[in-house]
Amino acid sequence: MATLQEDIKQIFYTSVGVDEGNPGNIPKMAEQLSQAIIDWLKRQEFRIKRMEATIEIDEFKTTQPIFGDVLSSVTVTTTAPATGNVTAGTHGVKVPIDLSKDTGLIASGHAYIGPPAEGKPNADTTEEENDYAVVQLIDGEEVA
Fold first, then answer.
1. Percentage of the chain surpassing pLDDT 90?
2. ∠ CA 89-90-91, rounded to 5°
3. Positive or negative, the Cα torsion across 61, 64, 70, 74?
4. Domain for residue 129, yes or no?
5. Which of 53, 33, 40 is nearest to 137 (CA)?
6. Could you tell me the CA-to-CA distances from 92 to 78, 80, 100, 112, 130 in Å, in that order?
7. Residue 33: which H helix or E strand, with range?
8. How many CB atoms lie within 10 A of CB 26?
9. In total, how many domains does the chain have?
10. How far apart are CA 37 and CA 112, in angstroms?
11. Do 34 and 5 form a contact (C-beta atoms < 8 A)?
12. Percentage of the chain modeled with pLDDT above 70
């Protein structure tokens, strides 16, 4: 794979009719032009218009306890020497949920941006024109 600079140099060689044996100012011009393009790209902010990415949920916690029902198969013991079964056990147990990967949580899902997010509950990333998903070329990662 040729670099941007090499591609530019070859375009100039072909269009001007010279070659590497007699390059004139083309190598320096190709270097400066490729750097100008890279610098311009670094100043740009690109928007992610559509995305679906797999996510892993590290923690899951409810803000208040969830009520659960007590099954009628649960045996109760009173202070008197008697036992029996629950007959009306709706909303009889508070279950706080506080899970993490350390406590055995295995959960995954998808994150969406743009049209794929439309129709998802509480979707707030449906706009293609947005400022919450920006992509930029990072210094040192470009190939001149």
1. 1
2. 115
3. positive
4. no
5. 40
6. 17, 22, 25, 38, 46
7. helix 26-43
8. 21
9. 1
10. 31
11. yes
12. 86
Could you tell me the two tokens for 8? 């530019």
Task: Return d(Cα 66, Cα 143) in angstroms, integer.
Answer: 54
Half-sphere exposure of 91 (CA within 13 A, CB side): 1
- The token pair at 116 is 């794929």
Does 52 map to a domain? no
Q: Is the pLDDT of residue 82 over 70?
A: no
Mean pLDDT of 36-48: 84
Residue 143, domain member (yes or no): yes
64: in domain: no
- How far apart (Å, rounded) are the C-alpha atoms in residues 53 and 60? 19
Q: Which of 102, 96, 103 is nearest to 62 (CA)?
A: 96
Pairwise CA distance, residues 137 & 8, whole Å: 20
d(CA 71, CA 136): 56
pTM: 0.48
Structure-token match 């998808």, residue found: 110
Residues 128 and 115 sit within 8 Å (Cβ to Cβ): yes
Domain of residue 3 covers: 1-45+135-144
